[in-house]
Amino acid sequence: MDIRTHRRIDAGLCGQAEAVGEGTSRVRLTTDARMAADERGLVHGGFVFGLADYAAMIAVNHSNVVLGAADVKFLAPVKVDETVVAEAKVVETAGRKRQVAVRVRRGDKPVFEGQFTCFVLDAHVLDGA
């Protein structure tokens, strides 16, 4: 796998890339106690979003890709010690803009879906900031 973006992501928090293809990716995350929002083990949705965002970024797979917007739905809760898998696919390209569809599942059950609007920049987003 040749991942050209987000190389310093902590796989324990955002997931481990399992597959990267032309405009596609699959990322697996096993949740842990650091992600718990409460004493019952509910995983904070930000970790599921982070997994989906990372999958979208590596589906685009450009060193200067950034997230511009996201339209997401949380479909089911995720608990500590569960494994979820995000699959992302670039569904539209228009100049620098990429629309990426992402689905996250726990087994066969969908837990999250979203449309991510990504942009490929000429330079790193922090250049000149």
What does this protein structure show overall?
By secondary structure, the chain is an alpha+beta fold. The chain has a single domain (11-120), classed as Thiol Ester Dehydrase, Chain A, CATH 3.10.129. Helices cover 16% and strands 44% of the residues. The protein has two helices and six strands; from the N terminus they run H-E-E-H-E-E-E-E. It has helices spanning 11-14, 45-60; strands spanning 16-21, 24-30, 65-74, 83-94, 97-106, 109-120. The chain has a six-stranded antiparallel sheet. The radius of gyration is 14 Å and the shape is globular.
Quick structural gist:
With 129 residues, the chain is α+β, with helices and mostly antiparallel strands.
Layout of helices and strands:
Blueprint: H1 11-14, E1 16-21, E2 24-30, H2 45-60, E3 65-74, E4 83-94, E5 97-106, E6 109-120
Antiparallel strand pairs: 1-2, 2-4, 3-6, 4-5, 5-6
